[in-house]
Amino acid sequence: MKRILLILVFFSFFHFNNIPAQSNTSINIYSRYYYLCKIWGYLKYFHSEVSRGVHDWDEILINTIDEVKKCITDDEFNNAILDLFSKIGETLEPTTPQIIIAESLRYNLSTDWFYDPLISNSIRAQMEKVRDRFRPRNNYYVGQAFANGNPTFNNDKKFYEYGSDEYPEENKRLLALFRYWNIINYFYPYKNIIDQNWDSTLAEFIPKVVEAADVKSYHTVFLMLSTRLNDSHGFTTSQTINYNIFGAYYLPLELKFIENQTIIIKDYSKNVNINSGDVIRSINSKSIESIRDSLRTVTIGSNEPTINRNINSYILRGTSTICSLELENDKGKKNISVRRVSSAEYNALRTNNTPIWNTIYQRGIKFGYVDMGRLENTQIDKMFQDLWGTDALIFDIRNYPKGTMWSMIRYLYYSPINIAKFTVPDITYPGTLKWTSATIGTGDFTRTYEKDIYILFDETTQSQAEYTIMGFEQHPNAVKIGSQTAGADGNVSYIYLPGGIATVFTGLGVFYPDGKPTQRIGIVPDINVIPTIQGIREGRDEVLETAINLKKSKPIDASKGFYVTNFPNPFSKETKFECQVIEKGIVSIEIFDILGRCVKKLYNSETEAGRYYFVWNGDNNFNDKVSSGAYLVVMSDGKNQTIRKVILLR
């Protein structure tokens, strides 16, 4: 069935592109390129003599493409492939038994295509021999950034000097596609959750690469290809992309996509004609909707908020310095001229000189606020010293932290914590993965901040920022506030391609300790808050306000107010909740998992004012035994709400 579907993919795709029939038809040559790509890539990573790096495997491909172009019949194509085998000789015979890998860790490895009709019995036999004789081994073309780290591909030839783009001839353009496709095919830990079948993507992009008419269209093809990963890490860069496609000049603005509108959040040039909350209607007389639509085809992202975030960044850029904007706000429309600036000027304008941490006083409550994007490791001790006496800490992670979370663990917990599990691409066995985990935290754990902490985030929160939240959110009194993050965690791997292109993908799979995924999903807030256009126009930070108001709803003297607490926390089997109700009313107590799903309604009834106790048994109180992890207990009486984070450890 898979072979039939694949053939249908080819015929449907090429039919809709109206490729004319020829003696050696485009359909035939493209389908042959498809199988050449897969055979060449499989041998690169599985044939003992190719994987040793003793052959110039790229040059052999370039020459083989020339031979394939001459083929009129399928038999001639298969003979050209057999000649490829003759250049490398026999693969080594094994001296050890085959390794058994669980199906759940080998979803990047399939050899079903060996049996597709275009592949002859002779080639199939050669491929089966390579498969059956393969044993895990080091590979010249694949390295590792660190022990149990993301894969590296530094021994692939770049075919260019850094910073000098070129328009490669067709064979090298195909080499670029074949290299990229095979690396993702065998080493991308999230290939199983991308939207489009990866084989179909290869079939789609072979004609695009062949027909790319110049350097700009060639580089654009790889921008489009990278979007197919559904990966917020999948950035693709080159001189052509940076200067000729997106442009090296920037509007001195910060944008956000709110309520389906492109909104100006900040004007760094302090133009009197621009206000926060202005809606962009057009740029250089082109509607903002059409601009967004055109940019979407080349914009990466694991999820919709991040795609819109990246589109916003590209909207700012251009190849010319003068730009006309049509803006609209509650006072009407206006047309203005704005000067784009260089990247250096843009970064200088965005320099933030406010305190990295400070205190915020609201109705007798003292908050400690920390800008995690600017906090340095050398400042951690001083920051905690200054903010230790606060009633709550607010960690703003709507930014990219400087690797500080590792050193902050000892101030937030009584001992090191298990922060995550990882799927690591096995560089000795391409197409398979292995599990590892991370326990972090060192130093003196005798001083622990036990009061509330609030974690702020949004679609700008990506990678290490998301990992930082995973470290903080296990705190018993942590509450996550904001909106869906970028959904791309894990160290990145680079691929270098002919023509001056460098591209990136997420090289490690990151999961919560209980196995819950993070890629594409991102970090799920406990309280979802998305800024509004009205809030922007009023100069309000609605995410920060939510944290402050949440704490303000909890009286300082908890013994006389509305609250829920529990002991022990963390707990391994059951924990006892103590609840204080202020006045008679319908009281509900619900337990939510980290994805925001209600897993248990612990209590829901009319209740007199007073103190009550409930027991949550993680084994018996649920239809299905719940897994280890962080849970959120929400208590409400219709007027007040209080939230408690609890940790279940098995």
Give short descriptive properties of this protein.
Pdz3 Domain, 30 strands, disordered N terminus, 4 domains, 650 residues, globular, six-stranded mixed beta sheet, 2-enoyl-CoA Hydratase, Chain A, domain 1
Could you characterize what this model shows?
This protein is an alpha+beta fold and 650 residues long. It has 4 domains: 2-228, no CATH class; 244-349, PDZ domain (Pdz3 Domain); 357-413 and 448-487 and 522-550, 2-enoyl-CoA Hydratase, Chain A, domain 1, CATH 3.90.226; 555-648, Macroglobulin (MG2) domain (Immunoglobulin-like, Sandwich). The protein has 18 helices and 30 strands. Strands 13-14-15-18-19-23 form a 6-stranded mixed beta sheet, covered by helices on one side. The chain has a 4-stranded antiparallel beta sheet with strand order 8-7-10-11. Strands 27-26-29-30 form a 4-stranded antiparallel beta sheet, with no helix packed on it. Helix 1 (2-16) packs parallel to helix 8, helix 2 (26-46) packs antiparallel against helix 4 and helix 9 (215-227) crosses helix 10. The longest helix is centred in the N-terminal third of the chain and has 21 residues, at 26-46. The model is unreliable at 1-24 and 554-560 (pLDDT under 50).
